[in-house]
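For consistency, the fold was encoded as tokens, which produced the following:
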Amino acid sequence: MTAAATTAFPAPIAEDSMPRFADFEADVRARGFDEVAERVWEAGTQVAVHGHPFAVEALMVQGELTLTIDDESRVLHRGDRFVLTADQPHAERYGPEGATYWAARRHG
């Protein structure tokens, strides 16, 4: 397991501690993220290895996402979180019911 992958998957949030979207947005904006959105993916969608010109911090709210960073793949569900640095290569595969997560982006 690589150092990047280790820090990419913070501890999950317990079901009874899941925030509302407004609370998630307020928290990440207070920490310097400049864009926050709900991302909804269709069942079976696969996204090949790619990166983004922004950092991401996300919280799964529904469905299943298999996220691969370097040599580590994790299957993520409600309450799981992931963090990507700008331009960090990763691949995504969405489960049989698709997935929804809240994504905070930090540009620049």
Notes: Residues 60 and 101 are 4 Å apart (CA to CA).
